[in-house]
Amino acid sequence: DSRRDSLFSDTMRLSSALLCLFLLTAEVTRSTGSSKCIARNFGYDSVVCECNSTYCDSLSSVTLPPLGRYSSYVSSMVGSRLEAGQGQVQVNGTATLRLTLVPYQKYQKIRGFGGAMTDAAAINILSLSAGAQDQLLRQYFSPEGIGYTVVRVPMASCDFSTHLYTYADTPGDYDLDTFTLAPEDFHMKIPLLQRAQALSSRPLSLLASAWSAPAWLKTNGALIGKGSLKGQPGGKEHKTWARYYIRFLEAYAKYNLTFWAVTTGNEPSAGRMTNYSFQALGFTPEEQRDWVALDLGPALHASSYPHTHILILDDNRLLLPYWAKVVLNDVHAGRWIHGVAVHWYMDSFVPAEISLGVTHHLYPEYYLFGTEACTGWSPLDRGVKLGSWQRAEQYAHDIIEDLNHYVVGWTDWNLALDHTGGPNWVKNFVDSPVIVDAQRDVFYKQPTFYSVAHFSKFLLEGSQRVGVSSSQKTELEHCAFIRPDGSVVLIILNRSSSEIQFEVWDPSVGYIPSTAPAHSLLTLAWNRQ
Ligand SMILES: *[C@@H]1O[C@H](CO)[C@@H](O)[C@H](O)[C@H]1NC(C)=O
Ligand SMILES: *[C@@H]1O[C@H](CO)[C@@H](O)[C@H](O)[C@H]1NC(C)=O
Ligand SMILES: *[C@@H]1O[C@H](CO)[C@@H](O)[C@H](O)[C@H]1NC(C)=O
Ligand SMILES: *[C@@H]1O[C@H](CO)[C@@H](O)[C@H](O)[C@H]1NC(C)=O
Ligand SMILES: *[C@@H]1O[C@H](CO)[C@@H](O)[C@H](O)[C@H]1NC(C)=O
User: Fold this and answer.
1) How much is the pTM?
2) Which residues have CB under 6 Å of ligand 1?
3) Burial class, 201, CB count within 10 angstroms (exposed 0-12 / middle 13-18 / buried 19+)
4) Which ligand has the minimum distance to the alpha carbon of residue 52?
5) Where are the chain's structural domains?
6) To test the ligand 4 pocket, which listed residue (226, 273, 275) has its Cβ within 8 A of the most ligand atoms?
7) Fold assignment, 65-108+465-526
8) Cellular component per GO (predicted)?
9) Residues 6+ apart with CB under 8 A from 214
10) 109-463 maps to CATH 3.60.20.10
């Protein structure tokens, strides 16, 4: 296979030439405190950054320059990774394409960004040496990392587990006397969540989702396949399933891990599909409505955790606004509910305006929150691709579209996977922003890692989306926020293959001349006072 080898070495030569060029140009603009990407090319359209037990590239913590100057951070297909620069805000504008900040148009406030501590993620993180584990957790959660504050925690097993289990697998145990967390919680997820919390300068917002109820509570007597809770909402199976949630919250609280929110269950539509291949629990929107109204809502309210938010749906936006209408129109259910959780699969087939937009306008008092996204899930584009910029663009496109349609946070799927995209007991292998190579004791930060970082590192909790007006039609995708300290963050995605010149006008500060390189993601930030 020497042709492939020579192609590979050509690519490597080209990429190291690009890397040199990148390092030369980066030298000029890089601010102090940051460290550079050790780039590796695996034959896709861009590179990964390699980290080990003693080294990982980082932007460090971000401080904005004084009024009259701006900061910029660029990542691009040719190899920039959060490359920092600064410039002077201009008095006059000259570009034909102008993006004008419209601060009096105010929209939703950001809750946060994050990923999921699945069994697979925990197994991969713990497969590294202690030093490399620490580097990895710092990348996500410490102040020099990318500012994750949200962690989704599966309640018991999902497909990203090595085997099937729930916390109460003894048939007929309606009192949940045998309820117990799993070794995966005690030895892996809980210690890692505690370490993540210790590294973070802010309290983490933990979010719990269950994939399946115990088999004996279900119509099909199994964790997988088509099945729902036996009986009716208000009945003993539905009550037991609500109590199981409370037992979970109590069990984690013993380890000082308290949850911001629970969802009504992962992808209820999956459990209504014939022969669905992994853990699922089917609900129709009517059943979900009545279970929340009669069981989950009252149980949570009467528990030691009455302030835990309840998020409905936890499934694709394809089901909106229909699902929200059925559940939220009912005051008995709606009074317990705080938000609507959405997954990103098949977003390209469902315009954001008719799903997220319409739901927000019908139910503005309930927030929208992204709870799951990953690349490499589609049969046409399967598994891990080390260094795919195309996938970074898919992430950034989806985040911008969500944020521009009232979503207040975005949660990635597995925090880390191995090079096969697992482990996953049903071989549903996908990609992750961090791919671990335990043999070499290294991990790779994928382009998608930086894609999320352009948002998560800058959009602190409480940042409020504001309007942006464009002087002409453009291929640039963008969203703008005013942070709690009054500074502005504007994120711009250029998915086209040519460079775009433009300027940003903030009427209270001036003009920021800018260029979005081909296939790039740009974060601009500046003070207004
Ligand atoms: C980690 O990576 C850095 C930068 O490539 C390298 O200098 C160092 O030797 C590596 N450390 C280990 C333990 O491999
Ligand atoms: C900016 O515009 C003003 C008014 O149009 C003009 O007087 C001034 O010379 C311009 N300044 C620069 C630096 O071009
Ligand atoms: C519990 O966690 C909080 C942060 O969420 C921390 O401030 C506190 O010190 C922790 N308490 C114990 C006993 O570890
Ligand atoms: C579901 O699985 C059963 C048993 O394996 C099989 O007989 C049936 O044809 C499957 N149904 C569908 C729709 O695939
Ligand atoms: C985006 O990149 C393309 C390709 O380089 C370029 O033509 C275009 O001008 C860029 N867009 C912006 C706004 O810079």
Assistant:
1) 0.92
2) 38, 52-55
3) exposed
4) 1
5) 65-108+465-526, 109-463
6) 275
7) Immunoglobulin-like (2.60.40)
8) lysosomal membrane
9) 166, 167, 168, 169, 173, 223, 244
10) no
